[in-house]
Amino acid sequence: MPKKVDHEARRQEISEALWRIARARGLEGASLRDVAAEAGISLGRLQHYFRTKDEMLVFALAHINQMAEDRIRERIEALPGDPTPREVLHACLWGMLPLDEESRTGTLVGAAFFHRAVHDEALRAGPKDGIPKLRGFFADQLRRAAERGELPPERATEDEAMLLISLADGLSTYLLLDVHGPEQAMHLMDLHLSRLFADDATR
């Protein structure tokens, strides 16, 4: 057991070195040797834990995604009473945006991963499996909202759920490019949620 814990701890240290490079200069030109140097270990030692850059990216992205899920869960659990579907969706969408240093780093690592996944079918397996699950979860929240009379029934669809995911992805891109800042991104997200839900329909 101690050896396994040490192995995972070292993989995490290497992953954090990758994050630091992502924050400082991006990952497109970064090699395994660059990451090894940042982590303070030899290239051979790094390759004991990750044979390829893709393996390292997959591990780093999985850990960052878990951290994002934990942030979202904490935000939802902090809501008073029984959170409404809209509050759950708002917390999820907030957690998907790069609004601070940690989430920005996660988005940068994700961008590097997706750039490589476009040309690698094996790497695309993760998003192709994960996104439909997220879409299904969002659609379930929309259906709950419709049942509660908070959303027109015709909007409680998987298409609307996918539009929410796509909006978060688009806003994330523009945040990374400084087209707009966090406040504007959240304003646009809230504007879309207001139009999606019954706010306008009940006025």
From TrEMBL:
Coiled coil: none annotated. The lineage of its organism: Bacteria, Bacillati, Actinomycetota, Actinomycetes, Kitasatosporales. GO terms for molecular function: DNA binding. SUPFAM superfamilies: Homeodomain-like (SSF46689), Tetracyclin repressor-like, C-terminal domain (SSF48498). Residues 8-68 form the HTH tetR-type domain. Keywords: DNA-binding, Repressor, Transcription, Transcription regulation. It comes from Streptomyces gilvosporeus. It comes from the Bacteria. The keyword DNA-binding applies. Residues 31-50 bind DNA. This is TetR family transcriptional regulator.
